[in-house]
Each structure stands twice: as structure tokens, then as C-alpha cells.
Write a structure and sequence with these properties.
The chain is mainly alpha-helical and 495 residues long. The protein has three domains: 125 residues, Resolvase, N-terminal catalytic domain (Rossmann fold, 3-Layer(aba) Sandwich); 143 residues, Hect, E3 ligase catalytic domain fold (Alpha-Beta Complex); 211 residues, no CATH class. Strands 1-2-3 form a three-stranded mixed β-sheet. A hairpin with a 5-residue loop joins strand 13 and strand 14. Helix 15 runs antiparallel to helix 18.
């Protein structure tokens, strides 16, 4: 228990004793942010209120109840009175059962607490980014192969046991092994996985449960600049101080400090490995090359589907789910076995039909005209700025109507009606902003892309012998389901 919690508990127990009150229970949320009301101790408090076990709630001050002014106001002005619960904030001199001027200014204190939380959030973010730029590690779990320096938690030192594994993975890649083969060999030798080192307890975490390496883990290690001594941080961030959702940042927002800590891998080796990592990840180097090799995926588990070697007795080859093959004993998926030659014919015929529909001249003409009228990337940025201003204004309006309600300038019904309207408008604007923001960094001009796709389709339809590279440009992935259904995901919009 933190010192702050201990001091608060002591103050409140003293207050209870001085006022001859009886304690039913003490609800503690140590380490949780007051901007979030979804806290275990607070939820237990609400449950006891609903069961009629509590008629009074006491906190050191209002910020201990919560720092979200709308939520705090709702509990003090509506929820507690509806459940006949008296609320006391000791140091703020707030007591909802007394007719006091301190109660009148309580909503403004809630707003100040909210603003304080927002200000603290900004300062913490700013402080963390400053530390990142100084080359200090501010993350939680360290990259596989490194530990926090016992004498300086912001500095990374090599974990010798894990570093041996990292070096071996890079050497195996230089020897020409694919991600899958590296993972398979490490698993067969029962080399501990990162999940086992860190004892992750995620649901269905097979790396931990079975001690198996995955191709994605190998890829992440082989492409991580941390191993050449470069500190790479700020890859992810929270949406804001109230919403705890984590989002991935653009690579331009990464904070990189070169030559910051001791390297495990030489730079020359690292960049040589980057050259050798194939674009078609997971595609085996076989004697026979297949047209759809590397494009097939299991529609049920999402992993790749590979193609077996052609059998001598019937000159046939078959598809098989890699996940099933890896975890055959655990039965995590099924075979997804199909005669590849027949499957290829079905898929190519379906792709031809899709291309013929797309190549409709009138549609192409309309698409080109539409693309000519679409906004440029600069226009998108201008719209983003406008949407951002709108979102800020709506949030300001929400603040204003809340203060108007507190000052009895508007009724509760008026407040609810306007609040719902503003929140709906905010949700629409925010979604539009997020969708547009995802597209702003798209460097491919849609008009040019449409022309390129048409050229690919024309070449594809006119070819007597199909070309794999052309197929790759038209097909993103092909999903094969156990019930034999096939889903072809193309690089253009289906008609």
C-alpha cells in the first residue's frame, strides 16, 4: 500500500472516530487513475450501495472520488441522492446533507480536478518524451535479450542467456533458413521462448503453454533495431488521459537514439539480414514453384497454408494448414487438405471472372472521373484541421452546458437533450477524423492506382501462360476454409 493511501486512510479513520461514525468497509484503488471510474474498489462500493449496505461515503477530498468532472458531478448530484447516500469530502468541506456554500462550489472543484488530471497527463507525456530523446528507457518489459540495469532502470544491459538465442536467430537467417524453419528448429530443441522467459498469462498463449516459437516472433527479432544499440521508443500511445486505449503511432513519430546501449548484433550483420528477408515471408524454397505459393491462408485460423511436394504415385500435391501441421497433437486447427492443381484452376477461373466484371469500360470511366474530383492529400489535411477544430469546439460546448446546468441556467432535461446531441455529433466527427487520418499517409494516388490495376488486369486476361508476379499484383491473399469455401481478396475493389 502506498504512503498516500496510508495517510488518507489514517485521516478518514480519525474523522470517523471524532464524529462517532461506524465503518462498514474501506474501499481502496491503489495505483488506479481517478479519471477512470471502472476501478475494482469503486465498483465494489457501488455494488454495496445498490444492496443498501451503505448510507454514507467519505473521501479525503473530491479528487479521491474521481477526476472526471462529469462523472464526479453525476455521482455527487444524482447517483448518491437517488440512493439516499450522504457524501463527505473532508478537506474540501463538502457534505451533501448540509446546506453549505462549499456544496455550491463543489462542481467547480470537480472541473479543477479534471483540469489538473489533464495537465498532469500532459506533463508526464512531455517528461517521458524528453527522457526518450535523452536515450533513457522508459518502457515496462524490456526487449528480448535485454534487462534493465540494476543501477539505472532507464538503461538497458544485455541478458547474456537471451542474447545467445538472439545471435543464433540472426546466424540462422544468414544461413538461409526461413522464419518458419528457424522457429521449428528452436521449438524442436526446446529453446525457451520470450513468453516463457516473461511468463505471459494471455488467453490461449500457445508460446507459453507449449513452448513453441512462431514465425512472427522470429520476424520481430530479426527486424528490431534495438539489437544494434539503437533505442527505439514511442511506438504506441494512449488516445488521451481519459481513454486508455492504446494505438500504434506512425513510424515518423518513433523516437530513435542511435548507439544508445550495448549492441547484441553488429550493424553490418543486421542490415545484411534485412536484405535477405524475403518479401514473400514463409514461402519455402522448393524444387517446384506454384502459381499461388505464399498467397494461401487458412480461413479458419488465419495462418498460412503451404503446398506439399508432389507425390510420385499419383503426381499430385496437396494443401495443408501450417498451424495444423505445427500443432497436430493439440488439434488447434484442421488439415484444410485440397488437391492443389484443382484448387488452382478454381481460383484462377474465379479471378478471371472478377477481373472481367471490374474491367467494365463504363465503370472505369466513372472511377477515373470520380478520382479526378477527389481531394488531394493537402485537402485531406485541411479537412483534418477543420474536424479537429470542430471536435475541440464540441468538447468546449459540453463543458459550457454542464456549467450552465450547475448554475441552473438550463434544466436537467435540456442538459440531457443537448448533451446527447453533442455527444452524437462528437462521435460522428471523431470517426470521420480517424478514418480520414488513416488515409492521409497513403502515398499512392488513387487515380494512378486505378490505371495501374487496369493495366495489370488487361495483361492478366490476355496472357496464355499465367505469370506469378502478375498474380501477386492482383491478389492480396486467398483464404481457404475447411468446408471448401474460398475467399479471394484482391488488390482492387470488387464489382
Amino acid at each position: 500500500m502506498s504512503e498516500s493511501i496510508t495517510n488518507q486512510k489514517s485521516l478518514l479513520l480519525q474523522y470517523v472516530e471524532e464524529n462517532n461514525l461506524r465503518v462498514y468497509d474501506i474501499y481502496i484503488d491503489d495505483g488506479y487513475s481517478g479519471t477512470n471510474f471502472d476501478r475494482p474498489g469503486f465498483n465494489r462500493l457501488l455494488k454495496d450501495i445498490e444492496l443498501g449496505k451503505i448510507n454514507m461515503v467519505i473521501t479525503k477530498d473530491m479528487s479521491r472520488l474521481g477526476r472526471d468532472y462529469i462523472g464526479t458531478g453525476n455521482f455527487i448530484e444524482k447517483y448518491f441522492p437517488e440512493h439516499n447516500v450522504r457524501y463527505i469530502a473532508v478537506t474540501d468541506n463538502v457534505d451533501t446533507f448540509l446546506d453549505s456554500s462549499n456544496n455550491d462550489i463543489a462542481p467547480f472543484k470537480a472541473i479543477m480536478n479534471d483540469m489538473y488530471a489533464k495537465d498532469i497527463s500532459k506533463k508526464i507525456k512531455s517528461s517521458l518524451k524528453a527522457k526518450m530523446k535523452e536515450g533513457k528507457w522508459v518502457g515496462g518489459r524490456t526487449p528480448f535479450g535485454y534487462d534493465k540495469d540494476p543501477n539505472d532502470k532507464n538503461h538497458l544491459v544485455i541478458n547474456k542467456e537471451q542474447a545467445v538465442i538472439v545471435k543464433r536467430i540472426f546466424n540462422m537467417c544468414l544461413d538461409g533458413l526461413s522464419f518458419y524453419k528457424i522457429a521449428k528448429q528452436l521449438t524442436s530443441e526446446k529453446i525457451k521462448t520470450p513468453a516463457q522467459y516473461y511468463s505471459f498469462e494471455w488467453k490461449s498463449h500457445y508460446n507459453l503453454r507449449y513452448g513453441t516459437w512462431h514465425s512472427k516472433t522470429i520476424r520481430d527479432i530479426l527486424t528490431n533495431r534495438m539489437y544494434i544499440g539503437d533505442l527505439v521508443q514511442n511506438k504506441r500511445s494512449k488516445v488521451n488521459y481519459k481513454v486508455k486505449k492504446i494505438v500504434n503511432n506512425n513510424t515518423n513519430d518513433y523516437i530513435v537514439v542511435e548507439n544508445n546501449h550495448e549492441a547484441i548484433i553488429d550493424r553490418e550483420i543486421f542490415y545484411e539480414v534485412q536484405k535477405r528477408i524475403p518479401k514473400n515471408k514463409g514461402r519455402n524454397e522448393k524444387k517446384e514453384k506454384h502459381l499461388l505459393d505464399g498467397l494461401l491462408y487458412c480461413g479458419d485460423c488465419g495462418h498460412r497454408i503451404s503446398i506439399t511436394s508432389r507425390r510420385k504415385k499419383d503426381n499430385r500435391c496437396y494443401t495443408i494448414c501450417n498451424y495444423y501441421r505445427t500443432y497436430m497433437r493439440e488439434r488447434l486447427c484442421t488439415t484444410h487438405s485440397n488437391n492443389y492443381d484443382e484448387l488452382e484452376k478454381i481460383i484462377i477461373n474465379s479471378l478471371i471472372e472478377t477481373c472481367l466484371n471490374y474491367i467494365n469500360k463504363d465503370k472505369i470511366k466513372n472511377d477515373v472521373l470520380l478520382n479526378l474530383d477527389e481531394m488531394s492529400k493537402d485537402d485531406d489535411k485541411k479537412e483534418l484541421d477543420t474536424l479537429n477544430d470542430d471536435i475541440k469546439q464540441i468538447n468546449n460546448n459540453l463543458d459550457d452546458i454542464y456549467i450552465d446546468k450547475l448554475n441552473d441556467r438550463i434544466t436537467e432535461e435540456q442538459f440531457k437533450r443537448v448533451k446527447i446531441k453533442l455527444e452524437n455529433e462528437l462521435s460522428i466527427k471523431q470517426k470521420k477524423y480517424d478514418d480520414l487520418n488513416d488515409d492521409v499517409d497513403d502515398t499512392i494516388d488513387e487515380k494512378s492506382k486505378n490505371k495501374i490495376i487496369v493495366e495489370y488486369i488487361n495483361k492478366f486476361l490476355s496472357m496464355k501462360e499465367l505469370d506469378r508476379e502478375l498474380i501477386i499484383n492482383l491478389v492480396d491473399r486467398i483464404e481457404i476454409f475447411e468446408d471448401k469455401n474460398i475467399n479471394i481478396i484482391v488488390t482492387f475493389d470488387k464489382v
